[in-house]
Design goal:
This is Zinc-ribbon domain-containing protein. This protein folds into 3 domains: 2-58, no CATH class; 62-128, no CATH class; 137-207, no CATH class. The chain contains 11 helices and 9 strands. The chain has helices at 2-7, 37-41, 47-58, 62-71, 76-85, 116-120, 127-130, 137-146, 177-182, 188-191, 197-207, and strands at 11-12, 23-27, 32-36, 89-90, 102-105, 111-114, 150-151, 162-166, 172-176. The strands form 3 sheets. The protein has a 3-stranded antiparallel beta sheet. It has a 3-stranded antiparallel beta sheet with strand order 4-5-6.
Length: 215
């Protein structure tokens, strides 16, 4: 966190870290305040400095404001810069538009996808570190990796929705996150059976508002 504060031109004065919700003491060029690590990583900083900047911006001529906005258009360079500021990395190699998700990696190695707009304008960062994504696509990929395989899906809906998987031998199949995690099933072709078929059928039917009549 000291390194993160230094990149913002400030200091982290805390001598002990308890958890991300516990307030730490920070210092900018002229002020001291307390804030949790969670808030700082979301992009918040000194409120006093922020109050100083707002009145000045109101008196900037519209044409100058427009010119500044033009320079702030989203692009891959901005994505890389923001990721580096947060000790992470933008894995994507190109920027398409504000609605197209990009792939990111935090300092702890967690990977996820979200738009550059949410990262830059909403102060979002790693959902796993922030505790907002306890059992989603990241965990699915971690489970697959621990079993020598890969989770091929790029979107996660819920624990019952099917995801696509590949084992170390290259076999591909679909199974819900719930089935893979809690039933501890893996590649049906390698195991020689399909232990999760009925469970998957019920879960998929339930996720689509239907009933499985073979229960």
């Amino acid at each position: 966190m000291r390194k993160f504060a230094e990149k913002k031109g400030g200091l982290c004065l805390a001598t002990e870290y308890i958890n991300r919700r516990n307030p730490l003491e920070w210092q900018c060029k002229g002020h001291k305040w307390k804030a949790s690590t969670k808030d700082i990583l979301k992009g918040t900083w000194c409120r006093m400095c922020r109050k100083r900047v707002i009145p000045i911006q109101k008196h900037i001529a519209p044409d100058i404001q427009h010119q500044k906005c033009s320079h702030r258009r989203f692009n891959i360079d901005i994505a890389n810069s923001i990721a580096q500021e947060r000790d992470g990395k933008c894995i994507s190699t190109e920027y398409v538009n504000a609605k197209t998700p990009m792939f990111w990696r935090c300092a702890k190695g967690y990977e996820w996808s979200t738009t550059l707009y949410r990262i830059k304008n909403m102060g979002r960062w790693c959902p796993q570190c922030s505790g907002n994504f306890p059992c989603g696509l990241i965990e699915a990929k971690e489970i697959a990796h621990s079993r020598g395989g890969t989770c091929l899906s790029k979107e996660y809906l819920n624990v019952r929705a099917p995801l696509y998987w590949m084992c170390s031998k290259g076999h591909k199949w679909s199974a819900s996150f719930n089935c893979i995690k809690h039933s501890k099933s893996w590649c049906p072709q390698c195991s020689g059976n399909f232990p999760c078929d009925l469970m998957e059928a019920k879960e998929i039917a339930h996720s689509r508002g239907a009933r499985n009549l073979m229960s």
